[in-house]
Amino acid sequence: MPLLLSPLAARCLHHSPRLPAPFAHHPSHPRPLGGEARGGGGRGRVAVVSERQAAVAAEKSPGGEGGDGERHDAIVVGSGIGGLVAATQLAAKGARVLVLEKYIIPGGSSGYYRRDGFTFDVGSSVMFGFSDKGNLNLITQALEAVGCKMEVIPDPSTVHFHLPGALSVLVHREYNDFIEELVSKFPHEKEGILKFYGICWKIFNSLNSLELKSLEEPLYLFGQFFKKPLECLTLAYYLPQNAGDIARKFIKDQQLLSFIDAECFIVSTVNALKTPMINASMALWRN
């Protein structure tokens, strides 16, 4: 059974080799967080339980006795976006998955909290990957794998920057409209804008042409190289470079460079000099 072990998981397994079924309607078994998610084929199952629920269940059923236990094919520790996606993808392939979460609700950085009547996002307020085109629509692909679809409303603009110096830049969904907007703000930097964002666009299209199933599996990447050699070489060339250094090769206006810093911050939470060029190209991804 695949297991990402944590102190919590270790305690549960030590007390109960057969973890109690979190959906069993038994007084000694806690109700799970969230609910049950079945895969596209209806064979797998995901159960999410909190740290306290798992600990109570382990105490109530020492040694896995009681008759209500259930074996799981995999245990995922943490119900953030990564954990939930991993769990649902396993369930879509027929696995019975238990997700352990130390907080009172699942979601991780996609969660929220309330204070003084206001609701605050715990993590990112911007999410990408809902397009039905290309290969970078990872959220759409993940939802399709479990038989779900999310309806989205395309917006002609994605971000409206209001920066110091009364600089206002509307980031259009369409690449050419965005370039036209930026050139209208910095006409003296037209050539530099076209060169820098041209490189970003080239990297983006290289990424979007690959099936990004695994960037950590050598054999898979080797196969992708033979399918898309030019795209892979493009990515390999720019992999060690950062956006700030490349931008400064073509652009001198400090206000424009500050705008590029702001764009990079959206996708990497750091400025352009600390943002890998491949990450910066994602700022062009408007879907």
Radius of gyration: 23 Å
**Number of extended strands:** 8
Structural class: alpha/beta
Cα separation of the termini: 37 Å
Order of helices and strands: HEEHEHEEEHEEHHHHHHH
The gross shape turns out to be globular
How many helical stretches? 11
**Overall helicity:** 40-55%
Residue-averaged pLDDT: 76
Please give the domain count.
2
Strand order of the largest sheet: 1-2-4-3
User: Main beta sheet, described?
Assistant: 4 strands, mixed
Uncertain segments are 1-35, 63-68
The proportion of strand residues reads 5-15%
Would you give an account of this structure?
By secondary structure, the chain is of the alpha/beta class. It has 2 domains: 7-112, no CATH class; 156-284, no CATH class. Helix content is 41%, strand content 15%. The protein is built from 11 helices and 8 strands. The strands form 3 sheets. It has a 4-stranded mixed β-sheet with strand order 1-2-4-3. A two-stranded antiparallel ribbon has the order 5-6. It has a two-stranded antiparallel ribbon with strand order 7-8. Strand 1 and strand 2 (45-50) form a beta hairpin. Helix 9 packs antiparallel against helix 10 (254-268). The radius of gyration is 23 Å and the shape is globular. Residues 1-35 and 63-68 have low confidence and may be disordered.
Comma- or semicolon-separated keywords:
41% helix; 4-stranded mixed β-sheet; globular; 287 residues; two-stranded antiparallel sheet; FAD/NAD-bd_sf; 2 domains; disordered N terminus; alpha/beta; CrtISO-like
